[in-house]
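Fold sample X.
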Amino acid sequence: MVVDHHHVETRANTTAVWSPEFSAAGLALLLAWALLDNAGLPQGDALPFLRSLSKLAAIASIADCVPLVGATRTLTKIGLAELAHTRHAGLRKMLFMAEVADQEVPTSEQIDFRVAPASKPPEELGTQR
């Protein structure tokens, strides 16, 4: 299965899930939600997991320049709010390095210009170590 926000060509025995409205992480969250729902997991049990994924989907949506409208805007808003309370050590460190105060909801600008570039390898940024 291929999940991305770009349309991809599929080959035999491959399923493509894509939408230009969501980042791949946003689509993965929606797919996970559908799978959990289909498995019969109560919403209350699925919610912590989906909130955890929303943080990553928010970062990916902003970093990948997906238009923040409609459902993507809502998902990103939820994910940014969840980032303010994350206990994930790597995300906490990235937010600290981006000068986002503890318990502060990061802005899309902070994610786009401080957090997202820090998550890319130097060779992708065109810099040398």
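Fold sample Y, listed below.
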Amino acid sequence: MVILIPLFVYLGLWQLDRAAQKRQLNASLESRRKLPALSLNGSLPNDDTWEFRKVVAHGHFLADRTVLIENRKYQGKTGFHVITPLKLDDNGKIVLVNRGWIPREQLAAVDAVPPTPDAEVTVHGVVTLPKAPAIVLGQPDDKGEGTPHWPYLTLDHFSAWSGLRILPMEILQSPDDADGFVRQWPQPRFSDTMHIGYAIQWFAFALIALLVWFRLSLHKPKEDGATA
């Protein structure tokens, strides 16, 4: 009991701390959403607060470096997310833009390329940091003809494939921008409910262990009577 009860209480407190961290992340997310859009042209701040920030960028799309992220769903249909790098005016930096969802049948041909504006564009959107899935079922295929079809996007792999030095972010383009596809991005939110539930379980285990200890400590086995 000296080991189990403190252990269960510690685990419960740890889960409560995780829940507090999730609430803090949500507060940080909301505060970033309320900030004015940050321009990516010109000098850029050197910090790690890019994710979930609203941004605006002016430049030209590099259509020949477009990549399609396959097996993306929208209203029950299968399609692609269209990823095109944008070369920024003024500073010449390059940032990846997720221009939205396009149905598979629209790009049925092997060498089909999504339509891309040739003129200078202004892109509005929200910053995200693409990551590989927890379980990788396939590797990006850089071979073959036409626009590459990848199962997922990572910044390192795109940079190695394209030979471009890109900013450490991806822009989810705003649905209000023109010349795009379907853009209904999920609103990220970190839930603390699961951690609170786990905390209650660990505290319940501690209480059960304490009650068992009381029950065993108060119970005295009967002594066998002497026989005549």
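Sample Y note: The first strand starts at residue 38 and ends at 39.
Also: The chain has two domains: 4-21+191-218, 38-173.
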